[in-house]
Design brief:
By secondary structure, the protein is mostly helical. Helices cover about 70% and strands about 5% of the residues. Helix 5 crosses helix 6, helix 25 packs antiparallel against helix 26 and helix 26 runs antiparallel to helix 27. The protein is elongated and about 95 Å long.
């Protein structure tokens, strides 16, 4: 592929524009890349003016899909992959077989195809787009949910199924020449042997290889070795007639237990993001708008039929596997599109005489449009069918207490406070509105109750009127403020000790009349600053003066900034003024200590330092 510098600039500009524009429009990065691809492609503005160029770009950009599967493999340890075997082969095989049969019937009726060609088309269309589906599910935070894990299992089986499917066109051929071609068993033996060899060699050699590279401490070598691993195993797999994506996935799984996994992810991720964006852009460029214009009714029917059949089969599989209606629907919509392997299979089908060129072109356009429709369908589902809230868990019965401390929010801060109070035999009633957090903390023996502290009836059940103090340690800022408002209104004499996440949070608590406020990272940051100054050789007296001066000044500034908290210009001026004031104070102290007789005794200072 001959790519000019101007084209490189064009593709980089597309990447720069597509993702931010998609985020602004809230349509997802994938759809953003597709739309930009349509705009700059041969059927749009024509910056890329030939389908041959688009095909070459697409072939190169498919390496982004390879890297995506490599990174996914890095997150799947072999034990976890083994644990997923039932989902992969059970759900995956059911989806491919049921969808292929249903689509084959539809193809035979729509295009009047012989059964061999219809079944081949059904198998090709049964495969979904791994890159599209995984990217969208990850963007929406659904990949870690049960239907997201189920989608991953189905996609992984589809990638495995694509390998034998690529060898099947000769068996489906209706021409005499194609029928003479048969799949050799020796190829299958070579493929299986290659997979075993890669697993064995990679398992015992890759970690040692990365250990040697890491010892050189040359970052470029580590990045190059990570890319070499992916490309090397991919080439070996392709030579054996296997999928490049499968090779990359196996390489990732082999390195999932490696000590260098996180560094490899950091090195590979930028390449994966750019190439995957280029892949989606190339898919958009390949969209044949001319064919859509000449046969809009037929193509619309094929796209709708493809999406409807696949979504329905996946929905039924999800329900059969125990998913609720909403997650089953999300599973169906996320995987309803055709996949990138379909383009390869259609090409192989035409060359083997299974499909004619016109049918293959229509199906390829339908697959591309189904990809473009997937993000839109998921957005439409979110607008029209908002996720039903889980049935509310009844709040726990709270203990009878008097003279106790109520702690609202039992995360990092609340737990530490509770441990100290309990050790001092001070009664504590700890509340948290997150049922998962409550159940998790209880496993470690903590006394915690499920309840929303911003609700008056919960505070009454916690007997806040008899409490000696109220610790506000809720992580969510808005929930924290709601709780502070309720406590101040109904229990005005109850002391509130509040945790603030930011200066703005502290100011809003001050609005509500809360006076005892601790910013969560303030004191720990000062403690770390002490260690840094000590490590730089500053005397204990110098460290103490610097920390105490800064602390007093910043606490004073917090109160003074409260008066003009909504005036950004005044806050900026105040920040500059305080920074200069601090510099002057430090300079003045240094000058005082530099005077004869003012320098502290270094030996005594060392004795005062903690061991």
């Amino acid at each position: 592929m001959n790519v000019s510098l101007a084209q490189v600039a064009l593709f980089l500009a597309a990447a720069v524009v597509a993702a931010p524009l998609a985020k602004y429009l809230r349509i997802g990065n994938v759809l953003g890349y597709l739309l930009v691809g349509v705009a700059i492609g041969p059927f749009g503005l024509g910056f890329v003016y030939s389908l041959y160029e688009v095909s070459s770009i697409l072939h190169f950009a498919e390496f982004g899909v390879v890297l995506l599967l490599f990174l996914i493999g890095l997150e799947l340890r072999p034990k976890r992959l083994w644990a997923m075997r039932m989902s992969i082969f059970g759900l995956g095989s059911a989806q491919v077989l049921l969808t292929a049969v249903a689509l084959a019937v539809a193809a035979a009726l729509t295009f009047r195809l012989p059964w061999q060609a219809a079944l081949f088309a059904g198998l090709a269309l049964s495969l979904s787009s791994t890159a599209f589906a995984l990217q969208i599910l990850e963007e929406k935070g659904e990949l870690a949910l049960r239907h997201g894990r189920m989608a991953f299992a189905v996609l992984l089986f589809q990638d495995l199924a694509a390998i034998p499917l690529l060898a099947l066109p000769p068996l489906f051929a209706v021409s005499t020449e194609g029928a003479r071609k048969t799949m050799e068993l020796s190829q299958a033996a070579v493929a299986i042997g290659t997979i075993i060899a890669v697993v064995v060699v990679g398992r015992y050699l890759l970690n040692g290889f990365y250990y040697l590279i890491a010892r050189t401490k040359v970052k470029e070598a580590m990045t190059a070795s990570a890319l070499l691993t992916v490309i090397g195993i991919t080439l070996i797999m392709e030579l054996a007639g296997l999928s490049a994506s499968l090779g990359a996935f196996i390489a990732g799984v082999l390195l999932a237990d490696s000590d260098y996994r996180h560094e490899i992810v950091a090195d590979i991720a930028p390449f994966e993001g750019l190439l995957l964006g280029l892949f989606f852009t190339a898919i958009g460029m390949s969209l044949n708008l001319g064919l859509i214009a000449t046969r809009p009714g037929l193509i619309a029917m094929v796209v709708l039929g493809l999406l409807a059949i696949k979504a329905l089969v996946l929905y039924l599989i999800g329900r059969r596997a125990g998913l609720e209606r909403g997650p089953s629907r999300r599973l169906g919509l996320a995987l309803a599109q055709g996949g990138e392997f379909a383009f390869v299979l259609f090409t192989a089908g035409v060359s083997s005489g299974v499909l004619n060129q016109n049918t293959a072109d229509i199906l390829a356009v339908a697959v591309t449009l189904s990809m473009a429709a997937t993000p839109l369908l998921l957005l439409l589902d979110e607008w029209l069918m908002p996720r039903a809230a889980a049935p509310a868990r009844p709040f726990d019965d709270l203990p009878d207490n008097d003279g106790h401390i109520v702690i609202a929010g039992f995360g990092r801060v609340g737990q530490i406070i509770a441990r100290v109070l309990v050790a001092k035999r001070i009664p504590v009633t700890a509340l948290d509105s997150n049922p998962e957090q409550v159940d998790f903390v209880r496993k470690f023996g903590a006394q915690i109750y499920y309840g929303d502290a911003s609700r008056l009836e919960i505070l009454e059940a916690a007997q806040a009127g008899k409490a000696r103090g109220f610790v506000l340690a809720i992580d969510d800022i808005e929930a924290s403020l709601r709780t502070a408002e309720v406590v101040r209104r109904h229990y005005p004499n109850l002391p509130i000790y509040a945790r603030a996440r930011t200066r703005a949070h502290a100011h809003r608590l001050m609005d509500l009349g809360v006076r005892s406020i601790k910013r969560e990272t303030f004191l720990s940051s000062l403690d770390m600053t002490k260690e840094v100054l000590r490590g730089l050789g500053h005397s204990e007296r110098d460290v103490r003066f610097a920390i105490e001066t800064f602390r007093e000044q910043d606490e004073r500034r917090l109160v003074e900034d409260y008066e003009h908290r909504d005036d950004l210009d005044k806050l900026r001026t105040s920040a500059r003024s305080y920074a200069r004031e601090l510099e002057v104070m430090f300079e003045k102290d240094a000058a005082e200590r530099a005077k004869p007789g003012k320098e502290p005794d270094k030996a005594k200072e060392r004795e005062k330092r903690p061991a």
